[in-house]
Write a structure and sequence with these properties.
- This protein has a six-stranded mixed β-sheet. Strands 1, 2, 3, 6 and 9 form a five-stranded mixed β-sheet that branches.
- The chain contains eight helices and 19 strands.
- It has helices at 46-50, 119-123, 215-229, 287-294, 330-343, 398-417, 422-441, 481-495, and strands spanning 11-14, 51-65, 68-78, 98-104, 110-116, 134-145, 149-156, 162-170, 177-178, 187-192, 201-208, 242-248, 271-272, 283-284, 301-306, 313-316, 320-324, 452-455, 458-464.
- Helices cover 21% and strands 25% of the residues.
- It folds into three domains: 11-178, Peptidase M64, N-terminal domain (Immunoglobulin-like), CATH 2.60.40; 187-343, Collagenase (Catalytic Domain) (3-Layer(aba) Sandwich), CATH 3.40.390; 377-475, no CATH class.
- It is of the alpha/beta class and 497 residues long.
- The longest helix has 20 residues, at 398-417.
Length: 497
């Protein structure tokens, strides 16, 4: 599961707290000037001209609902050594529902930026958003600036343009900025390492729900799942561009919170099933604790292994990914959810039950690289990969697939309602895999890149690039060509000069 696209619908309210940390003590700052560097050009003075070898983290509260959106500063702290790229500082990928920019106050140049998605942004697409208010903690991480900077948070509007919704000025010398580092939250160990953190993609895998006497099991799960990730392209070919580390974080007892199963737990990072009341959706709402724990290691990306048999996981672009480890499709979930978190890939499936509101008459073009509303086929975002003669939209056995999928979903709901063991659900998944692999792999345009209707939870009006992909089914097909290219682009953002 993943962050889904939606037009900006809220009335935006910017609340800027801790005014004393800003230059001159003024809470409200003027809008940052636009510059050529917002287009993706890298800062002229380079990393050493603007930053120190340390990570700054801006924690804030993201609140809203019923047509409102409020952002309020919480605190600014150190988040350990800087492990990110020192050359690719400005993000030119145009991914994410949100974008933050760090602007040098003296020159008004953008010196760092990153796109991302969030739990709040995902919550906006649920029915609950229209009926009540909620608050979600979030954070922004960037190299520690040498001089005061303006931090600007932007959000996509209905036309997909980024619009500023909040900003604050941060003076690194202020007494309200805490430069102290936290002690390590657990034992850090290396799965494999290919070079300095600043020139590699750094993945951190963290345990959740493993009791102290189960840490050896965690080590085995890490090696099994990470090995599987790097058997898929393009991770296989680009393995040398990664470092992978793992953090032992014992829980008081085995397992995580599963409210629907009446299996209640308090774990170090509060990872839980039933996010947005979806039984298989697993995340933590506790951003602060997750970041505090992760600061034990150099990282850009986080995947949390959940010591549970129940099928589940979650992934949000540039935030977190999770996967439960003890069911038959754990390896698939690990890789699929990492695709969301790492490259902003959309869920391509559309027949499964989800918490989001669906069935809109019109669709904004998704920001995710592997889904499109295809308002103009001549400008299809992956048009260069479509062979001449491939029709757009691309025909496929949609009705047959939907009929069989609806039957499988109905059977799954019955199994869940009867509290059937996970082994029965795994058996159903294997049956699904057999018929969908055969159906989706045996069509005229199965080997082609095109525009296959049905994607991102919508049966109509949204399209995916290929008939089958790991973002669409549990079939053993790997990432489609569009997804592979999107993944490589993110690898290049962190591991290339």
């Amino acid at each position: 599961m993943s962050m889904r696209s939606a037009p900006a619908r809220a009335v935006i309210v910017a609340v800027i707290a801790l005014a004393a940390m800003t230059n001159g003590g003024s809470a409200q700052q003027p809008p940052a000037k636009a510059s050529a560097e917002t287009s993706g050009a890298q800062p002229l003075a380079g990393f050493d001209g603007y930053f120190s070898d340390k990570t700054m983290r801006v924690d804030y509260f993201h609140s809203g609902g019923v047509g409102q959106e409020i952002v309020a500063l919480d605190r600014v702290v150190s988040d350990g050594p800087w492990s990110g790229s020192r050359t690719r500082l400005v993000d030119d990928t145009n991914l994410g529902k949100y974008l933050f920019e760090v602007i040098d106050r003296e020159s008004n140049l953008v010196i760092y930026s990153r796109g991302f998605a969030s739990i709040y942004g995902e919550w906006e697409t649920t029915a609950e958003y229209k009926a009540r208010h909620r608050t979600f903690p979030e954070s922004l991480r960037f190299p520690w600036p040498k001089q005061p900077v303006q931090v600007v948070l932007k959000k996509r509007d209905a036309e997909n343009s980024f619009r500023e919704i909040w900003s604050t000025v941060v003076d690194p010398a202020s007494r309200f900025v805490n430069p102290a580092d936290l002690p390590s939250a657990g034992k850090l160990w290396t799965v494999f390492e290919n070079g300095p953190a600043s020139t590699k993609v750094d993945l951190l895998v963290i345990s959740e729900g493993y009791a102290a006497d189960q840490i050896d099991k965690f080590h085995g799960d890490v090696k099994r799942l990470v090995t599987r990730l790097f058997e898929y392209e393009p991770f296989k070919s680009r393995r040398a561009d990664f470092n992978v580390r793992a953090l032992d974080l014992p829980s008081p007892r085995s397992g995580v919170n599963r409210a629907r199963a009446q299996s209640f737990r308090r774990t170090p990072m509060s990872v839980e099933f039933n996010i947005f009341d979806s039984e298989r959706y697993v995340l933590t709402y506790d951003d602060r604790t997750l970041r505090n724990v992760a600061s034990s290691a150099p990282y850009e990306f986080i995947e949390v292994l959940v010591n549970e048999e129940q099928y589940g996981g979650g992934g949000i672009f540039n935030f977190q990914a999770t996967a439960s480890v003890d069911h038959a499709y754990a390896e698939y979930v690990f890789v699929h959810e990492f695709g969301h978190h790492f490259a902003g890939l959309a869920d391509e499936y559309y027949t499964s039950d989800v918490a989001y509101e669906t069935g809109a008459a019109e669709h904004v073009e998704p920001w995710e690289p592997n889904a499109t509303a295809m308002h103009d086929p001549s400008r299809l975002k992956w048009r260069d990969l479509v062979e001449p003669g491939t029709p757009l939209p691309t025909p496929w056995e949609k009705e047959s697939y939907e009929k069989q999928s609806r039957e499988s979903q109905a059977r799954r709901r019955k199994l869940l309602a009867s509290n059937a063991p996970q082994s029965e659900i795994d058996k159903l998944f294997r049956e699904e895999e057999a018929w969908s692999t055969k159906l989706l792999g045996g069509m005229k345009f199965s080997p082609k890149v095109g525009a296959f209707e049905g994607a991102s939870y919508e049966a109509k009006g949204l399209y995916r690039p290929e008939a089958d992909c790991i973002m669409f089914t549990r079939d053993p097909v790997g990432f489609c060509r569009v997804c592979r290219r999107a993944i490589e682009r993110i690898i290049d953002l962190y591991a290339r000069p």
